[in-house]
Specification:
There is one protein chain. By secondary structure, the chain is an alpha+beta fold. The chain folds into three domains: 113 residues, Rossmann fold, CATH 3.40.50; 133 residues, 2-Layer Sandwich (D-amino Acid Aminotransferase, Chain A, domain 1); 68 residues, no CATH class. The strands form four sheets. Strands 14-13-12-15-16 form a five-stranded antiparallel β-sheet, sandwiched between helices. A four-stranded parallel β-sheet has the order 2-1-6-7, with helices on one face. Helix 1 crosses helix 9. The longest helix has 21 residues. It is globular and about 65 Å long.
Length: 331
């Protein structure tokens, strides 16, 4: 018999499969009721109604054959929020208004769930996505970080290129939206910068960029932190990354990920770092240098981990389910 408050809301989009399915399955095995909300299907296929009365307020949500009330929701897994999928026949001025109103309605829905346990709280996620704050906090807790320059000044970028002896990469401070079409991959992934790339660096005045020294790699790590638990996958730089600066570009072979154990001091710093952001979940990227030094690159508060569970049989989905089912006063 289900209690009245045992629904776990999984916030994602319709193109999300492996990870969301694994977490839903783990929750079901533990006796909870997962309810998947594909944010791109609101408002066309999801009905959301807010009720405000004198003594109470609540929302009801209907998606497909299932409906829930906010009063039933024990916890929320914030995986992804996507823009609504609307008809292309909608005139642009109506389309923009519909998207704005839909997002404002969802914001009200999230607010109505403030008593639930969140993995993670939206404010913590938004604060945690600030890459410059990440670097500052990483340095404060004792992580080694790459020399970094953020600038919209062409001359500063050229000087930094000389300072790091021409070993430089560029990246963005914010993620691109999934629908953004960019023909120049220089702006898409972490990219090596060559001297000729800086010839037209005057375009920086339109858009600042992040430049970092290129760190020599023995291996690249994806470290998944879940409520004090740490899971690690490593890619051997010699085998895999000779031609690629960013492993997130398409084409990581199944089986390329290997198990890796972090030193205790790195785990300790990692827990302190995540605590400072108030995050129960994060996917972090590190480089291990040929001399064995661990260099922090960044954390994504809603980052990917499915490949580690798939290739290394790490029980990440089960631990996420445990984090969701833990009572707020326990943690």
């Amino acid at each position: 018999m289900h209690s009245s408050r045992d629904v776990i809301l999984l916030i994602t989009h319709s193109g999300d499969f492996f990870t969301i399915d694994r977490v839903a399955e783990a929750l079901s095995k533990k006796g909870a009721q997962p309810f998947r909300l594909d944010t791109d299907k609101f408002p066309l296929e999801v009905q959301l109604t807010a009720h405000f009365e004198k003594s109470k307020s609540y929302h009801t949500l209907k998606y497909g054959t299932r409906s829930i009330s906010t009063q039933q929701v024990q916890a929320v897994w914030m995986r992804r929020i996507w823009e609504p999928e609307l008809s292309k026949e909608l005139a642009p001025q109506f389309r923009d208004a519909c998207i704005r109103e839909s997002q404002a309605t969802l914001d009200g829905f999230w607010d109505s769930l403030k008593e639930a346990r969140w993995v993670d709280d939206l404010e913590c996620i938004n604060a945690g996505q600030n890459k410059l704050r990440q670097l500052r906090v990483a340095s404060e807790v004792g992580f080694t970080i790459p020399q970094t320059l953020v600038t919209n000044k062409a001359e500063a970028a050229r000087e930094f290129f000389q300072q790091v002896n021409g070993k430089m990469v560029s990246k963005l401070l914010t993620p691109l939206s999934y629908g953004m079409q960019v023909t120049n991959s220089f702006f898409l992934y972490t990219s090596t910068v060559k001297e000729e790339d800086l010839l037209d660096a005057e375009s920086l005045r339109y858009c600042p960029m992040v430049f970092q020294e290129q760190i020599p790699k023995q291996s690249e790590l994806r470290v998944v932190y879940v409520n004090g638990n740490v899971f690690v996958g490593a890619l051997d730089a010699d085998v895999y990354s000779a031609a690629k600066v960013d492993w997130r570009k398409p084409g990581v072979d199944v089986g390329a990920w290997q198990h890796h154990e972090l030193p205790d001091e790195v785990v300790s710093r990692l827990k302190t770092f995540m605590g400072k952001f108030g995050l129960l979940f994060g996917a972090l990227d590190f480089i291990v240098t040929p001399s064995g030094e661990y260099v922090f690159l960044e954390v994504n508060p809603v980052g990917e981990w499915g490949m580690l569970e798939r290739d290394l049989d790490l029980p990440i989905s089960s631990v996420i389910a445990d984090a969701l089912l833990q009572k707020n006063d326990e943690g």
